[in-house]
Structure formats: C-alpha cells, structure tokens
Write a structure and sequence with these properties.
Layout (H helix, E strand, L loop, with lengths): L7 E5 L17 E9 L3 E10 L7 E4 L2 E3 L1 E2 L10 E7 L7 E8 L14 E10 L181 E5 L7 E5 L7 E9 L4 E5 L2 H6 L6 E7 L5 E6 L3 E6 L4 E9 L30 H9 L11 H7 L1 H21 L2
Length: 484
C-alpha cells in the first residue's frame, strides 16, 4: 500500500558524476538533474534531465533495481537536452542512492561505448516542517452561468375521483288539460287518377315535380313495379334527382339503377361519390356493344383489390380465367420483340407510340440470346433506336421498358381520403381485405370493433367537418320547412 507523501521526500543531492574528468567528449552521457516532478501528486516520480541519452529508451538502474522509463524524448531540444521520468519503489526509505543511466542501441541492448554510461547520486531524506500558510488570494471572478438542465419528466396522472352522489329526482308535474280539437282543414286537390299520363310544353323547369321537406329519411318520389319502379326518358336527363344523401337511389332484382342513352351518358352522377354501387355481384356494371369502353375513367383509376381481365374457361362453365395486372411503383411502359445481329450488330427501332408516351430518362433494355451462347450488350439507346452488339451473330429476344412521360414523378405515398369515414356512424367496410382492415385499425382510422376512432377524427378535423355538414343540412331543412 502506498505511504502518505508527507513521510519522505526525494531531493536533489548534487552533480556527482562518477566518470573520469577526461571523458568529456561530445557523446558522453550526462545527467544534469534528477528531481521530483510533482511532489503533491507523484512523490516517488523523478524527472531526469540530461544530455547525449541517445535516440532509444535508456536502461535506468536504482541501485540494483531496473526502473521503467516513461515520457522519453528521443530528439534533443534546441539546447541539446533530453528528459525522461522514472517511478521509484513505493515506499523508498531515506538514504543515499545511485541512479545509473545507460544509453541503448536500436536492438534494446546496452551501447558498447565507454561514454554511454553515467551515475547520479540522489538522497532521500525526511520531510521538513510545514511552512507557514500563505496569504489568502484575491477572490476570483464569477464564473459563467451553467447551461439550464433538462426539464423533468411529467408526473403520473392521478387516480380518477369517485363519482358524485346523484341528486334527488324531482316530482313529476301534473298533466296539462287537453286542448280543443281544431277545425278540419279544406280538402286537398284530388290527385291524378291511375293510370295517369300527361303531356305539356314548357320552356324550362320540370313538368312534374315533388318536394318533400320532411327531413330524416324522407322520399320525394317512390315507385314500385315488377319491371320498372321509376322510368324516365329525356333528351338530356331521363331521370333527374337531387337529395341531401342521394340524388337517385335504386334497388331491384336485376338492376338497382339502369341507364341507357343513344349518344350521351347512361348514368351520370356528381358529388362526393359520383356513382356509388354496392351489390352481391357487381357494384357498378358497364357494357358497350359498339366496341368502345364499357367503363371509362377520365382520371386515375384505383381499386383496393386487383385489376384483372377475365375470359371464359374452355371446358368448365362454372369457372373463369382471371389474369391480374402487373403492379409496381411507377407508370410503366414497354415493348418487346425478337431480332438477330448481323455483323455482330442489330438496331432496334423504337415504335412511335412508345416514343410519344414514354420519358427519355429511365429506359432499360433486357437481351436474351436464343439457340446458342453469346455475349451481348446495349451499345447505345434513346427513344429513336437501340443499338445492340454481340460477340457472334445470334438471334435474341429483347424487352424495352420505360415510364409514362406524363407520370414520370409519380408519388407512391400521397395524401388521400379513400379510406376516410364519411360520417361518425360509419362502420369499417366489410369488403376490405383483412390486411387493409388491420392497417386501418393500426393507423387509428377505426377501432378494433369496426367503429370510427373519434380521437383520430377530432385530431384530423374530420369530426368538425361532419358537425359543419350536419348544421348546414339542418339549416337547409329548417328553411325549406318555413317556406311551405
């Protein structure tokens, strides 16, 4: 265990060089001083100051004990001095000791030169009396203010208090006297006799109009029949309806809403959902016998399921063949074909239609040799032609792919409201896949029981929009009722 530094001290005894006076050549090892480096912190560490110690760590003996050398400076300073430190045995009793320093070679062995060795006498004595305390220093300047510490974590929420005692229910008041029955109003105009048919000529406005301001689930016109519940034919609209919930609602064994036109649009809708269909077979069905589009979208077309084409099965009438459209994070275009290199080169001409709709950037080409081995490479490519070279003449297949010019910056993840509930009472749609339902629960759109997550609805402003819509609808109904 290390002794307290107050017991002994290492002091400089003198410059006793035990070498002949004649050995004062330029390379003679000289020890100038050997003194305690820092008595308060390291009372047994000597800082040795000398000359001609060489460029390799010297060998140092304390009496007969080999000491470890540290902090050796192999390159002399401007005055030719070198330094190193050694730690004496702890404790070292008072007495006179020899500090021997021997210069070494690169191999770590002693230098054979007779000038490579020097001794220095060091005396360890008792520590002198403690000196008187010095004068108190002046007060230092005030330090800079430390940085503000981090805010502590919020404390735990307290327990919910007990519910208050319910107040006493008041007595039920007496029933008021019944008022007198009012006089019967005049009889209304007789309705049209059935069957009814009428013809009129007016410049604008409806020939037949029914308004129901009853609110709730009121219906203005209702028709029930074994064939057509409501049938209309017009030069512009066959049937026109406007409602707070749905303009036209239909349900039937065959078609809920059926529209046919000679030139225009069979069924036209506008609103949050232009046309909304829900059925056990086809939600919305369209057909065209002229070879044009059965269903046409003037913008992007989206689906939560796959996009497929179907064809009849050749042997089983209960089955269909369904191929699914390839999907990816881009609006891809492609053309493909087969060619052959002549003179180890082939030029693939890019079709004009591909060039019109495809962006220059992002073209890729795949080559497949057919029938024999060959190395092939695309030498150059653009929207006009693709130059291919091979190590031998060979037939090959090619596939050229690109990205639609108008959708070159397509964003896979974007803002959307396709899965936003339309009202606080809406349930999670049953037609969604289990994967989609799981995501809508995890992102907070719906609760696990299928109800709307009102916390998310409030945070994103959906609930406020629903309240505003309800107020606007109630105001509209109130104004219509007053105008009766």
């Amino acid at each position: 265990m290390r002794q307290q530094p107050s017991k002994v001290a290492v002091t400089l005894a003198g410059l006793a060089l035990l070498l002949p006076a004649a050995l004062t050549a330029a390379y003679q090892v000289i020890i100038n001083t050997a003194a305690v480096m820092d008595y308060s912190a390291h009372p047994y560490v000597l800082q040795v100051h000398g000359q001609n110690l060489g460029q390799y760590v010297p060998i140092v003996l304390w009496g007969q004990q080999n000491l470890v050398v540290g902090n050796f400076t192999p390159v002399p300073d401007a005055n030719g001095f070198q330094t190193f430190s050694v730690e004496l045995p702890d404790p070292t009793p008072p007495g006179s000791y020899q500090l021997s320093v021997t210069r070494t070679k690169k191999t770590g062995k002693c230098d054979d030169s007779e000038l490579s060795f020097a001794r220095f006498e060091v005396t360890i004595g008792a520590v002198g009396p403690i000196g008187s305390q010095g004068l108190k220093g002046d007060k230092g300047d005030k330090g800079d203010q430390g940085i503000q510490g981090f805010q502590g974590i919020q404390g735990l929420k307290g327990d919910k208090g007990d519910p208050g005692i319910p107040g006493v229910k008041g007595d039920t008041g007496d029933t008021g006297a019944q008022g007198q029955q009012g006089a019967q109003g005049p009889a209304g105009a007789p309705g049209p006799a059935l069957p009814y048919s009428g013809t009129t000529i007016i410049g604008s406005g409806p020939a037949f109009e029914v308004i129901n301001n009853g609110g709730g689930s009121a219906v203005a016109v209702s028709g029930t029949s074994n064939h057509n519940g409501v049938y209309g034919w017009g030069g512009y609209y066959g049937v026109y309806g406007w409602g707070g919930y749905a303009g036209v609602t239909g349900g039937g064994y065959t078609y809920g809403v059926y529209g046919a036109t000679a030139q225009g649009t069979g069924v036209y809708g506008s609103g949050y959902y232009g046309v909304y269909g829900e059925a056990t077979t086809h939600g919305v069905y369209g057909s065209n016998s002229t070879g044009s589009w059965g269903v046409y979208s003037a913008g992007d077309l989206a689906a939560t399921g796959t996009k497929s084409f179907v064809e009849p099965h050749p042997t089983d009438p209960t089955k269909t063949i369904r191929y699914v459209a390839l999907e990816g994070p881009e609006a891809g275009t492609y053309f493909r074909g087969t060619a052959r290199t002549v003179g180890r080169q082939a030029v693939i001409e890019v079709p004009e239609t591909f060039r019109i709709v495809t962006a220059e950037e992002g073209l890729t080409v795949q080559l497949t040799p057919v029938g024999e081995f060959a190395q092939m490479a695309v030498f150059s490519q653009d929207l006009n032609q693709i130059v291919v070279r091979s190590t031998r003449e060979v037939t090959f297949h090619y596939l050229v792919q690109g990205v639609r010019r108008a959708f070159n910056d397509w964003q896979v993840v974007a803002e959307g409201q396709e899965f936003r509930p339309a009202s606080p009472d809406q349930k999670m749609p049953s037609w969604l896949t289990e994967e989609a339902k799981s995501r809508l629960i995890s992102n907070g759109t719906y609760n696990s029981d299928g109800t709307v997550n009102m916390s998310t609805a409030e945070r994103l402003g959906w609930a406020q929009k629903w309240r505003d819509e309800a107020i606007a609808k109630a105001t509209q109904e109130t104004g219509a009722a007053k105008s009766k």
